Amino acid sequence: MPKSPSLKNFRRIVIKVGSSLLVDSAAGRIKRAWLTSLAEDIAQLHKDKRDVLVVSSGSIALGRAVLKLPAGPLKLEESQAAAAVGQIALARTWSEVLGAHDITAGQVLVTLSDTEERRRYLNARSTINRLLKWRAVPVINENDTVATTEIRFGDNDRLGARVATMVSADLLILLSDIDGLYDKPPGPNRDARLIPLVERITPEIEAMAGVSHSATARGGMITKIEAAKIATTAGTHMVIAPGHVKNPVGSIGKGGVCTWFMTPANPVTSRKKWIAGSLEPRGTLLIDAGAVAALRRGKSLLAAGVTRIEGQFGRGDAVLIRGPDGAEIGRGLIGYDADEAQAIRGKGSSDILTILGAGGRAEMIHRDDLVLG
Ligand code: GLU
Asked: Which residue of 76, 87, 115, 142 sits with most ligand 1 atoms within 8 Å of its CB, as the best mutation to test the pocket?
């Protein structure tokens, strides 16, 4: 069996933290000592120049505690109102524990549609990428107060996987009250064996997933396997690890119990495959020789190098890129609607600022969204 990978091999890591780890429901408060130890792990990765993102559950559980709501199921609007209360405390806590290591936290609340609709997807991704560039740690949760049943993720395991693929993370760590994947439910079966490494999610692996018994966590093993499928098909490795220990991420690095789900692909390559293969181009950009050379050097496509634009497309649509002789150079996801793209074609950054105002970017297509033919 191949060896489990070492944490050192990853440059962009999403850590998903389950509600039951963060919130002591009986005492009605955050498990501060534990969270402080996780913050130490994050600070270590951050110091080692890794990009770290946190997907944190706990808004509903914490809101329940603050509001002193009785145990038992909540109606949708009650959960949402509890989340409104809990999210404030959650964000403040993250900001404090990371702040103790001089790390800035940035709260990002998303809904399912933000990760599905291409325009919003690009916006969410740009915001998160900018936070990472500033070396802040994005702390992400579902926007529980506005999402209706149909547009909810409902569980943060899948949200974590979507976020990880959205930012081309190479690792997603799911910390919960579960140690990893067992070949049968470990509670009733004393001989259940932990599977350290899953190379491919087969029907047998899916059959091993049981149901969570924890009161606060909605995500059982089934949603974790779903998350593993989303992550590994998009080129992100995933690991399920026990969160209840102190320094839970550090423990994975030291070979503690956990289950790795390996991806055969690399995140950027699989995204690029998706851009190259599965999207219908909605327009064409003609670019000058200088821009062709820049793209070949791995740069983004700047508005300044675009000489002609054809087609009606929206931000996030796929477009063809042609060189001065009309030959296809590649494809990419355009960062502007067609009319804006027309307005800034051939222009430099300062003109773009005048034409589009703040928020106007010189890149028409970011290099991560570009595939050369
Ligand atoms: N978004 C929910 C919360 O923060 C939790 C979903 C989950 O536990 O997976 O309370």
From this structure: 142
Q: Residues with Cβ within 6 A of ligand 1?
A: 18-19, 57-61, 83, 141-142, 144, 155-156, 217-219
What does the domain layout of the chain look like in residue ranges? 7-267, 279-372
Separation of alpha carbons 120 and 122, rounded Å? 5
Provide the pLDDT for residue 215. 44
Beta-carbon neighbour count of residue 276 at 10 Å? 16
CATH of domain 7-267: 3.40.1160.10
Averaged pLDDT, 252-264: 88
Report the residue among 14, 57, 108, 240 best suited for mutation to probe ligand 1: largest number of ligand atoms under 8 A from its CB.
57
Tens-place pLDDT, residues 237-252: 999 999 999 999 999 9
In whole angstroms, give the CA distance from residue 134 to residue 155.
28
For 97-142, the pLDDT digits (tens) are 999 999 999 999 998 888 877 777 888 898 999 999 999 999 999 9
H-state helical runs in 134-202: 156-166
Tell me phi and psi for residue 286, to 5 degrees: -100, 135
Report domain 279-372's class. mainly beta
Which residue minimizes the CA distance to atom 4 of ligand 1?
Answer: 57
- Give the mutation target among 20, 23, 25, 59 for probing the ligand 1 site: most ligand atoms within 8 A of CB: 59
